[in-house]
Amino acid sequence: MNVFARILRGEIPNKTVVDSAHTLAFHDIAPSAPVHVLVIPKGAYVDFADFAANASAEEILDFHRTAAKVCEITGVKPGEGFRAITNSGAHGVQEVPHYHLHILGGRVMGRMVARTD
To answer: What pTM, to 2 d.p., does this model score?
Structure first.
């Protein structure tokens, strides 16, 4: 069982930012930026493609509105900038096989991916 499923079942504590009907957002235990929040659906979706293809309209709306609320609560601002990242599979270096969105902010994030040209 993956760590996010254990968090959702209450087996592992978390520092919750938002808990909604279909989504849980919580602070990352090993933050990569001053603001580093994970937003996860409560349904068992493996990655973005699985969630986008199979989640209900209510789940999708709730997920995105919760992510927006996280930005508001944590103070990351579009003018200053923040990054929203999701990883998928081995090439995307996905560590937990449960769809999740990282919201990172509070500093300059640097290049997203190194250029190969």
So the answer is: 0.91
